[in-house]
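Q: Predict the assembly, please.
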Amino acid sequence: MMLEIFEGALQPKEIFSRWYDDECNANWGAFIPFVGIVREEDEIEALSFDIYEPILINWFDAWQQKAKQRGAKLRMAHSKGDVKVHKSSYVAAVLSPKRRVALELIDAFVEDFKANAPIWKYDVIQNKRIYAKKRSMPMNGAGLLAKKD
Amino acid sequence: MMLEIFEGALQPKEIFSRWYDDECNANWGAFIPFVGIVREEDEIEALSFDIYEPILINWFDAWQQKAKQRGAKLRMAHSKGDVKVHKSSYVAAVLSPKRRVALELIDAFVEDFKANAPIWKYDVIQNKRIYAKKRSMPMNGAGLLAKKD
Amino acid sequence: MITIEFLGPIAQESITIEASSLRDVAKFLQQDSKLSSWLDSLAIAINDKLTDNLDAPLNDGDRVSLLPPVCGG
Amino acid sequence: MITIEFLGPIAQESITIEASSLRDVAKFLQQDSKLSSWLDSLAIAINDKLTDNLDAPLNDGDRVSLLPPVCGG
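A: Predicted assembly structure:
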């Protein structure tokens, strides 16, 4: 499975090594992992994540199709639950024969991930879990049910 | 030193692990390594590289300054000599507090690397080293000495 | 009957209502004062497929999921 | 005297010539039939600093490096 969900912090060194071993003989020319690390700021001790997996899988599969049409491949790992500061919660990677395609895809994939992957983030401050509302983005098409005829 | 030159193929798993350990407590939010892997095509057995280190160091230092102005940091490893197909010859990475800066810098850095880092590539075919002229790009400002008054 | 499921930070149990389209779901939720502040920002899925069609028909047993603003990574 | 150094795939030993600016170096190299096909595509460094100024002055002991088209990675 090219989409992996882990309870708690990711182990980026294990993930990189495993993915590299999986892919290094597949004749890709470029392998770009994006590693997201929890920053220490505003007194947070950790971030915490909820994931709705059925829609995340659909979202990821649609991106995998887009990548495939460009001759490329995507892999992704994400945490659920708590991830302490200075630990990793997110690794996304593109593999492509072409440098240009790889650079364009990692950018578009990570940006759309931020905007449309069904994952909710909470700051953990003094053991309380506070929805990171200000940093969150309404997904594409949001607001449908607010419409009045 | 943030710029590393190795004789022969790189060891991306060692490089990733070492860089991750170096940087994981520095409060970066995004770490994007670009890993270049030698593709098997057109009967090549390996690629081979010449590097002119004094100008490579100047080029890298100028980029490091640009990155620093955006709050980011660059690291890079490159091979000299022969690198067999399916082995890595190039790893470049950006570390940044900000996702957007990281994605923009890795793209600009890798593209300028391709165009202006003083590194020459040769195809190794039947043990012969053939300059990869068609895939090579004249550096910025090239052609100065062809001018006639 | 269809089920309405509240995902992520909306602290609310699932509910079941009678509805033949998303339009009925909208009318129902617009009356709930606890939810009205969320409605502007919710994306909607029917049986785990996102939709932007308020006239999407609903059948008995369908599941409507409400997805508040996201922030992965 | 200045030294002209040929980098990468230009298979040629360094040479030393009298030159007071890059313009002199250009004139000298334009006469060399083996090199003329390269000149269009060479970048130039004086003492390891790239330059695009044909009038850059040269001093005794300076080193002029010729850099053919590159392809790292």
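Chains C and D do not touch (no CB pair under 8 Å). Chain C has two helices and five strands.
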